[in-house]
Backbone:
DNA sequence: CTTGCAAAACTAATATCATTAGTTTATATT
DNA sequence: AATATAAACTAATGATATTAGTTTTGCAAG
């Protein structure tokens, strides 16, 4: 029984590969153990069961997502930053559909690592959005809007929800353009129901 | 062994209740059988296993969603219709989070019932969006955009992804207003990257 | 009213999971 | 070199879905 030399991070990386290649439903401890050449119970030396693994994957996914979008927006601001961030975000969800899915896990009460990873992304989006000159509350609403757009687009794209034969990149670019134009045109009376 | 008198629709309804009350991960054949007072294998007389049940739930969910949004938009058009549809859509996801989740299942090749149910919703949204005077392709992109917004918002709302203490209904109204304003302001040059 | 049949329920069995308990052994530390 | 810690293991349990085969119900045809 030669030691396999596993550690937590190795497990998370291997699980992320499984998730991206075969989908999250294929991420079982049995499959992960097989991939790593050990027996399932051995994994418990490094992770807190399947639930713990999923949380670690979520944190890892958020960190990776942050890396990608922060690098993409470096040195940019305004519209260019929003577009760059959006492209990077969707690029990530395309490259890592399984890992991205884990990041949507609702954080348990007091899960500081997960909250921190999510918070960094939130701060970055706020910073990008704040270039449009809304008030503080307006910024927060606009950030929620952008996140909704990006998450919604990626989900529908990934599960083939867009049946129509129409270029998806064009849809994304138009969607972001439209949203930015809306922010610009509405100014501060965004609440009014017309 | 008195006959329970089950049928497919009863199973789907009961499964939807489980999904909405306890989440989709709680929808197991074991739990469903217990709720209905039979043994798990008995369910196979009415459904094609768990996978078949999920497909039926997806179709049922899409039909319910269509009912809700088509009723909400009846007699309305333009902005009012978009807002009414959005409110109805989000109202449905709030009232039936579990059932809504099943509707996101990627349709298998040749799953005509699921495709039909999705198609009706798509047609309705296209009809509402077409009031804004875009060309045919523009309409389709705009529909994708609205669906992204609504799905993204509902997902993030449901799993608590909006950490900030800010009224969610305000966010939704502003988001829709912003999107509509964007469509109005951009007109047909939505593709341009600046 | 009886007979028979199809369908709906059942029991029993299998395979796959996750998880826990307890054991062995490799590696690092003293 | 001795020991302790931790990483791997085996064995066992309980939940799940699913299949095969059996019983029985309820209806329908004679």
Residues:
């Amino acid at each position: 029984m030669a030691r396999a030399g596993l550690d937590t991070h190795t497990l998370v990386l291997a699980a992320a590969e499984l998730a991206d290649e075969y989908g999250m439903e294929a991420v079982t401890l049995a499959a992960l153990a097989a991939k790593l050449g050990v027996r399932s119970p051995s994994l418990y030396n490094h992770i807190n069961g399947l639930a713990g693994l999923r949380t670690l994957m979520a944190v890892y996914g958020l960190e990776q997502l942050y890396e990608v979008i922060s690098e993409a927006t470096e040195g940019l601001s305004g519209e260019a930053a929003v577009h760059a961030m959006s492209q990077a975000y969707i690029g990530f969800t395309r490259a890592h559909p399984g890992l991205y899915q884990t990041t949507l896990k609702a954080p348990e009460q007091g899960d500081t690592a997960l909250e921190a990873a999510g918070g960094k992304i939130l701060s970055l989006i706020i910073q990008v959005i704040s270039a449009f000159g809304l008030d503080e509350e307006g910024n927060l609403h606009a950030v929620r809007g952008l996140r909704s757009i990006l998450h919604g687009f990626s989900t529908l794209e990934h599960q083939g929800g867009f049946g129509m034969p129409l270029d998806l990149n064009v849809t994304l670019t138009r969607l972001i353009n439209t949203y930015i134009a809306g922010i610009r045109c509405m100014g501060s009376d965004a609440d009014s129901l017309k």
